[in-house]
Amino acid sequence: MKWSMPMLIKTIVASLLNKYDFFLCIEGNTGTGKSTLAFHIASKVSQEFHKLTLLREDVVEYYYERVGRRAGLTEEEFVLKLLKLKEGKKYKFYPAKALIYTQDELLKSLTSWQEISIPDELVNMAFNRDFYSQKQKDIIKILNMYRDHENLTIACVPSFQVIDNQIKNLTKMKITVKRRGVAIIHTPNSTVYCKDKWDQATNEKIEREWIKRKIRNPNYSKLTTFRGLIKFPPLTKKQELMYQQIKDQKRTIVLKNDMNITQEEKDKKDPFNIFMNLLKNDGIRNGMEMEGYAKAMGITMDQLRSKASKQLRRENKPHALSHYYWEKKGIKSNNMHQKIVEL
After folding, report:
1. Alpha-carbon torsion angle 69, 73, 75, 80, nearest 10
2. Domains of the chain from N-terminus onward
């Protein structure tokens, strides 16, 4: 089944209007677009609530039939509820506020009402090895106690498996980003006796069989939690630049306050920055050597090429990476020398 972005947004908004929190987890490898998808979902949910609070007839009618009538509300009561959301400026998406990197920020967000938040590295806040830390226990306690605050929390993690089991059980939906622009939607199974709503053991066996048989394009519908596929576009250049600036600013604060590391120290050790310094100073021989650096970083050649080109554009430098290969520069230099000799 193919999901459209409007289908996903309507599902989330309907759940929030039903007086439930919506805890969504987006997993995927580095550079696949988890943050991009989170940004799209957060901004579009905010836009959908804006349409509701403007009392757009088609939108109000849709949610009243799906949510209001089933909850036993009259149309007047439903409209009154929407006007209260407008008065309180609820579900407004402010990226600088929504993007969360610390446990304290997450705790504050979870105890608020009708807010959108994006814990961009939830693995650092709710990792299973930190279960016995006080703040970790507070996060789990608040997620259980305040799940009727109608908050949308979009958690981004490298792997759903590393999250604490109690948080997994509170997750309404999991989206696995397979590659840029393409993701798989999962929801937990409705169970009575089974403790594992995500059926991890069964789905692991299915995946292991695919690996054993070296299946490149598996049929994801065989997974018991599979609900459909969704495609999503990249961010605009303006959105991407803004989002990256917010990320960098907040990460710098975390490094300084929590880990006593300055941004300058972090930059020196960052594998990508090391690669860029080599590239710009004749330290990369050719594309094959560059591919080795990509593998060392755990990303594909295309992802490294894209990231490096963007960085060079920001610095107003030629963005074709082959321009910097010293092997290529050597050939050009030899050709130029030969022409001079001939003259």
Report:
1. -140
2. 2-188+225-231 (3.40.50), 270-343 (no CATH)
Take residue 41 and report the two structure tokens written for it: 């979902």
pLDDT digits (tens, 9 = 90+) for 260-318: 545 455 555 677 888 888 888 877 878 777 777 777 777 788 888 888 888 888 888 88
What is the tens place of the pLDDT at every residue in 58-101? 999 999 999 999 989 999 999 999 999 988 889 999 888 888 88
Under a CB-based contact definition with an 8 Å cutoff, are residues 46 and 93 in contact?
Answer: yes
Cβ atoms of 62 and 70 within 8 Å: the answer is: no
Does the model's pTM come out above 0.90?
no
Contacts within 8 Å (CB) and 24+ apart, 120-124? 120/35, 120/38, 120/156, 120/247, 121/156, 121/157, 122/25, 122/155, 122/156, 122/157, 122/163, 123/157, 123/158, 123/159, 123/162, 123/163
Alpha-carbon distance 250 to 258, whole Å?
Answer: 12
Helix (H/G/I), strand (E/B), else coil: 222: helix
